Amino acid sequence: MLFLRSTDYDDHTRVLKVRYATPSGSSWASFEYRDVPDDVVDRLRAARPHGRRVLEQQVIPFHDVRRAGQTTWQAPANRSAPVTVGA
To answer: Residue 62 CB: number of other CB atoms within 10 A?
Structure first.
């Protein structure tokens, strides 16, 4: 299981960077989501420490994603249903 560890948002590019980590913190992964509106980022920040729910319901299903450092974006697998990252 991966836990939400941190977020960073660039309001010029509208890219949300999310870092997940294992409970021990020994492993982690970073993903970037494209064209995330400011109001969704505000809801994500206000939902702390339960921001993962906002990610699963309002970000992951609707925004293109790439692993940090990659050059190509992937469309969401299913824009109509929440997607869970990590297991």
So the answer is: 18
Residue 86's Cβ-side half-sphere holds a number of Cα atoms within 13 Å equal to 19
Q: What is the pTM of this model?
A: 0.82
Element (H, E) at 4: strand 3-10
Residue 11 burial (10 A CB sphere; 0-12, 13-18, 19+): exposed
Residue 54 lies inside a defined structural domain of this protein: yes
Domain span at 50? 3-67
Asked if residue 74 is part of any domain, the answer here is no
Report the pLDDT value the prediction gives residue 61, as an integer from 0 to 100.
94
